[in-house]
Design goal:
128 residues; alpha/beta; four-stranded mixed β-sheet
């Protein structure tokens, strides 16, 4: 089995999709103009997608109040320090930074809607 996508209910899928395309290098693989305004966003590998939508509208989690370790999107990142600065200029906020003994450097941030995102530079890569 292979994971196709991970789905999250968000308040503004259109604005959020635009932000992730512009700032995280994602592409819109498919979108729907239905009331849920569904967007499938693919990463640059073409192997992973995140689905964002607004349905039901009254049940969007309060991502900003959640501990980032409960839910976050993690991105492979060659230069977390530089990417952090770029994302802060684009409206993201810093949450925490961790250096692990194996040489990994992890930077936790929040996108402009409060969803936690993690920038991962692994000492030993985990993906093939």
């Amino acid at each position: 089995m292979k994971i196709e996508h991970f789905a999250i209910n968000v308040a503004d899928p259109i604005a959020m999709a635009d932000w992730y395309v512009e700032n995280m290098g994602m592409t819109v693989v498919r979108k729907s103009d239905s009331s849920a305004r569904t967007h499938f966003l693919g990463d640059d590998s073409g192997q992973v997608m995140v689905e964002i939508y607004n349905n039901p509208p009254n049940q969007v989690p309060d991502y900003a109040s959640m501990n980032p370790l409960l839910l976050h999107l993690a991105f492979v990142c060659e230069d977390p320090v530089q990417k952090r600065a770029e994302l802060e200029m684009a409206g993201a906020s810093f949450a925490e930074e961790v250096h692990i003994k194996d040489g990994s450097h992890l930077v936790m941030m929040r996108d402009p809607w409060g969803l936690a995102i993690q920038l991962c530079k692994r000492g030993v890569p985990m993906l093939r």
